Every structure is written in structure tokens, then in C-alpha cells.
Amino acid sequence: NGNAGFQQVLERLESDPVCQRLSLKSFLILPFQRITRLKLLLQNILKRTRPGSEEEVQATQAYDALEKLIKDCNENVQRMKSTEELIYLSQKIEFECKIFPLISQSRRLVKRGELTALDFNTPSPKWKVTTRPIYLHLFNDCLLLSRPKE
Fold first, then answer.
1. Which residues does UniProt call coiled coil (predicted)?
2. Which domains does the chain have, with CATH numbers?
């Protein structure tokens, strides 16, 4: 979005008849769609092969290899999503002092959410309760509490 030249070239390429008016995103997703179709194809081949035959052994090996590939792809997609979340979060959060780097290969966001903190002011005879939003970010290795900038 920040590079106007790239956007112009991308629009020109996407409007080219060779691309069949498909977006760049669809071309990036296409290999993953093909892998899942291959899995379905191998399942059908396995259904139609004779049990105990050489073809069944080869198809089973191919299916197992494809299963491993799909699992690896899904894990890498999850890892990239997690890293993108950490980058987005590090851009949003401003630390008073840097205690640790928020972005790390091993760190991933497990859960996040908003809570309401209650402050009870006891010096007065009447209990006065004030509220303010607090955000919790639970990572696999730490818990981060944040509040909106005032």
C-alpha cells in the first residue's frame, strides 16, 4: 500500500487477460489449493487399488508424504500469522522501557482480550469505584498487561 509504483504495476498485471482478472492473492493461494486436491486424488486412488499390491504401497507412501507436506504448510502458515500478530502488536504498544523484545521466533500470542480494571478509592466515607480498560496479552512464555494511552 505504501509503494504507489508497485500498486500500479500490480493493477496492470491483474487486469491483463493472461491473468484472467485474478488477484495476486489468488495466485499465492493456488499452490495450497492444489496440494489439498492432490490429497483427495490420492484418497480416491487408494480406494480403487487392490489391497496388498505394489500400487497400494506406492500410493500410501505418496499419501503419507503429502500429509506431512500439508501439515508442514499449515504449521508455517500459523507461524507466519503469529509473527504478523506480534509485529502488529509491537507497532501498537509503546513501552516506557524496553524489558524484552516482543517479536521472537519462539514467542506466539495465545490469547488476548480486554478487561475492566476497578479502582476502589477508600479515603472517602463513600466507596467510589472508577473503571478503566486493561488489555491482557497471553503469550506462550509471558503475560503482558497494557492500557490505552491517555
1. none
2. 2-89 (1.20.900.10), 94-149 (no CATH)
Residue-wise pLDDT for 114-134, tens only, equals: 988 887 766 666 667 778 888
**Chain-centre distance of CA 128, in angstroms?**
42
92 vs 107: CA distance, rounded Å: 17
Question: If you count them, how many residues does the chain have?
Answer: 150
